[in-house]
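Risk register update: the risk of archive-format incompatibility is retired. Evidence:
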Amino acid sequence: MIIKTPSRLHLTLIDLNGSLGRIDGGVGLTLEKPALVLEMERNNGEISVEFQNRESIPVKVISDYEDKIKTSARRMMDYLELDCGYSFTICETYPSHSGLGSGTQLALATAKLISEADNQQITVPEIANIVGRGGTSGIGVASFDKGGFIVDGGHPQDEKPDFLPSSASPASPPPIIARYDFPHDWKVVLVIPQVEKNVSGEKEVNIFQEYCPIPVEEVQQLSHLLLMKMMPAVLEKDLDGFGEAVNSIQNIGFKKVENQLQKPIIGDIMQLLRDAGAPGVGMSSFGPTIYAVNDNTQDIVSAARDALRDIGGSIIETRAQNSGAVLEHIH
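Archived output:
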């Protein structure tokens, strides 16, 4: 069996104040590329992980992928009380810890393959619960499940009393309160500068603790912007309106904190892409991936190349994916 998952942009968290009794909430977009392709066969022994193009993948990414696959596989095997072994082959990867959600896609893909091989019909939110994903944002889980443009409703504080990133939160995936097809003719340019990621792991936990709660006025401002500008712009295919909303959310609430904690080069690149004509430019999650939503990629890609000339990095031209992960049985 083989599974192909999309990637996702995490546009913003909504409410890290909690005055109404819920926290988190998120807005995201599912992408066609980069994609993760994972193949699995049953064996009689252990859980093994191979890479099709191992020599071209950084050592850190290899160990990260191996850990996540083995952890997720064991959790699903424990849940289903299985004692066989599985051989996993990673055919396509995308950068881990870059703000594109590789951890969630990898965990869900692994567990989905095992559950399907055992003929178990388990929903994607249930799988996320089993492997421990979706504790802050529901965007990655919903991208894997259904794709498109997604808004999730966060967690009740009796389930999740603390401000924590997904990696440190045992909460269940939150409810999806809106999911729309995203205009297919809008293009997305990803710019992934080769900079040391400023925030992950323990440091990420500390940032949530240090900067939250966010002032309620900023949560209200962001909610107003999402409900009365960004969401209607997607439905009405209003690229300029959507772009204005993306640009505005970079300076409000927790996204403002995420941006302030980056190296200055991230903000510089974002401004260069806007100057090149991109209607909307933002940073996904804690970065360093920057995204530019536009309808003419040529000038944007050219500006991105100039911006990366001295520091290195990668540019990916992609678009939204309005469907989830795809599973194929190989006979």
